[in-house]
Amino acid sequence: MKHPQNSDLWVHILGIAGTFMGGIAQLAKAKGFRVSGSDKAIYPPMSTQLLQAGIEVTPYEQDTTLSVSNHHFPDVVVIGNALSRGHNLVEATLNAQQSYTSGPQWLAEHILADRWVVAVAATHGKTTTASMVAWILEYAGLNPGFLIGGVPENFGVSARLGESPFFVVEADEYDTAFFDKRSKFVHYHPRTCVINNLEFDHADIFENLAAIQKQFHHLVRTVPGNGLIIKPSDELNVDEVLAKGCWSPVQSQGLQNADWTYRLLKQDATEFEVLFKGELKGQIYWGMTGLHSVRNALSAIAAAVHCGVPVEHCIAGLCEFKGVRRRMTLVGETAKGIKIYDDFAHHPTAIETTLLGAKNALKITSTLKGIKPGHNSAPNGRLVAVFEPRSNTMRMGVHRDTLPAAFACADEVFAFIDPDWHWHLPASLFTQPVTVMSSYEALLEVLIKQLQPNDTVVMMSNGSFGGLHHRLLDALNQKDNE
């Protein structure tokens, strides 16, 4: 596929350091545009990717691109959805009567218009499933393009233009921009559409579940009759969306009563069989854990098969799938066997499935060591959950009452809660010890004191968590050497 050169056209991106907008920047640069941008905070991994792509980035307060004193303005300003009316750069764009657009709209017009789009939508698992699809297509030699809200370890970047007709996009239901309140994914017009699950989230922009379902049905309306929708066999909320009207073929995935099903060969889901309409297609052996990973894999396989990849190639490719950064990523292990994982989970369902997968992995470890299961403090160590309720929805208190059940698999829970959030954790409803700290430093100190040899620590946040993952690992290693 040839990409036209656009070196004379200048794209300036406001909010460039976010994963999505940073991906837009990299795609625009690869397409031949001159690209620049600014953001409030610029940090890895996106700052590294932008630097490697040769893209000029400045902090908001130093961005003079739209100043009235300039004689040369960008050809278009792409405005991220984190910026609202009142932001000085938004106001400068409007006052100068600059041409502006949203990230999803720019993507649709300049990247997706001539591609076979595979869109992955869901409340949970979008990033991982989209990464799986992109990797399967890559494994099959198709060199796909992709834009994913994370960094797939098999690629090392979150966005790539690619050379084939296929483009995989993580289809986010969050709103598009201050001037376009539709969900991002309505712009993508996929031929292959995955809807993995659907729950209430993003309470800052959606009034209730029905409002989210309405947006998902807008997505369904864009899938052509010769396309494919892939859905779970056991998600009532998704079924209700399709019941509003569906004009495309549908395939399902699940444990049973589905087109694509699975049989576990190991309890932690590191080995399982893949079946299509009851016929065994192969076995997957990989480093992923948890039933949610298996379900993501079935969706990815169905999507790739629709793109023309033989199912055997899909299965072989997933056996070499390395996961996604910040999705149960092992930060490191101390000399005393304390393992620290970094995970993006910030919704009760994601927290529950992540911890369940970790707990099952611990049980497998116990069996291999000849340890009888039962006691939480067995020599294989405890499962320790560390989290911060950082998302807008969580801080609004929407999920507070469902949190205790989400942490059921953890042996002990630690939390960071900023006093400015005015958020109270219902610690009395938890069945295990809960420790709440109001600063990262205090949380770090208590973890250093209370963690025990062979503990598995899962740190969950949709932010940077104050860099606590590496700081904790370094502090524990230093403690071991004293």
TrEMBL record:
Its EC number is 6.3.2.45. The keyword Nuclease does not apply. It catalyses: UDP-N-acetyl-alpha-D-muramate + L-alanyl-gamma-D-glutamyl-meso-2,6-diaminopimelate + ATP = UDP-N-acetyl-alpha-D-muramoyl-L-alanyl-gamma-D-glutamyl-meso-2,6-diaminopimelate + ADP + phosphate + H(+). It is an enzyme of class 6 (ligase). It comes from the Bacteria. Residues 123-304 form the Mur ligase central domain. Residues 11-112 form the Mur ligase N-terminal catalytic domain. Reutilizes the intact tripeptide L-alanyl-gamma-D-glutamyl-meso-diaminopimelate by linking it to UDP-N-acetylmuramate. Belongs to the MurCDEF family. Mpl subfamily. This is UDP-N-acetylmuramate--L-alanyl-gamma-D-glutamyl-meso-2,6-diaminoheptandioate ligase. It comes from Thiosulfativibrio zosterae. The gene is mpl.
